[in-house]
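Sequence in, structure out.
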Amino acid sequence: MSSFRNSNRFFIISLFGMMLLTVGVFAQQTAPSAAAEAKPAEAALITPDIIEHPEVKQIDAEGAGKLYSVGEHLVCVMEGTPEEMGFQHGRLLAQKIKHVITEGYFKKALWDRGYTPEYVNAQSARMEKFIPAAYMEEIKGIVKGLKKAGVMDVTQDAVRNGVTQAEILHFDPNSPPACSNFACWGQWTTDGRLLHGRNLDWSIDWSAQDDAVILVWRPKGGTPFMMVGWAGGIGSVSGMNAHGLTLGEMTCVSSDATFDGIPLCVLMRRVLQEAKNLDEAVNIIRTGPRTTGWNFILGDGNAGDGRALEVDAKACEVFGSMDPKENEETGHWSIPDAVRRTNHPISATQLLKLAQSMGPKMGLNITTMEQLKAAIFILKIQNTWQRYDWLGKQIQAKPHGMDVKEALQLLANGPVFNDDTLHSWVFDPKNKTAYVAVAGINPLLTATRCAFTKIDLSPWFN
């Protein structure tokens, strides 16, 4: 089995599979005529429900660690040294950790789909070399907490595998990636504050939502931060810290991939735990070492600014609002006071590198930027480009009109809507607030068709 299970090919075929025809036959094709059939009027936007005043209950405690219910969500607050926080995590969430590893998500996403323990353990062990020692101490603490709660059959390696599974499952061979992120501020929001919205589009059939938890860390002498994640995880793919930084990621196709790097969930945690501003956050991601292709959206609620990053194992390209690199040459367009990304690279360098490296494997011969530009309209029929385009147009449609309700509408409508959204959120860092929805369990229901719960993080961020 090769790295990442050769599944990059699926998305490459989708993105570049018609390029030979495009370059050879349709390079001179013009835009549709004005006489083309008019598009039907768009349906009214669906507005998700918001639970503005959820009941907050403390339901358990372990030392300085506390477990709360906030409406339907579990919130696990950990405090202290890495080992102490891990111990609190393991003891408070023992049964959910056991379930996600032995019966739930791990079984359904990995073992039931043909991944072998030998393969997963080997690749996870490669990534462990790049996990900071303090985080490994936290994993050891989780296992100790599990044992105190009577769970004896979950090993340190099993917990570690959980924080490396994003790489192991990178590019599910059965479907193209589909996640969306945007941050906007200034002229687009009602009061100028930054709002950051994100859909995690990942299978809801693998039961990860059964063990979903909002994790809040209060490290001794460090910055409090939160991540929308799952029991047993020492990191995740969505989060915000007390300095007003917000972070979300999207899978991005890449020809440069390795298991010899910091796992995605750990890298994102490092940003939230260590960075105080955008420059520090970008530097952590740039320094890596990284594993494979990801797109990131970073927001800074204090500065009222954001960044989009396109990375793989070798490259890290950084974009701001109105960035000149985001232009018509590759079929894209930048806007002021906003950044957004979906599941493809926008950088001309990254798109061309992708075509050059992967094209020959499918009989494609795209070697120059001119050849690539002639095929850009093929990219524009892909769902990933349509989501990027729709988000930009929706943000610009209502100057000073974006509030939490409007941001949630962007996540729940148009091509951004997905019936496999595992979790969805809007972060409001100025107000230390997150609006979070997680996919339904019984019946199965995509996250953006569930209610969003307002979670006030100020008690734990102050």
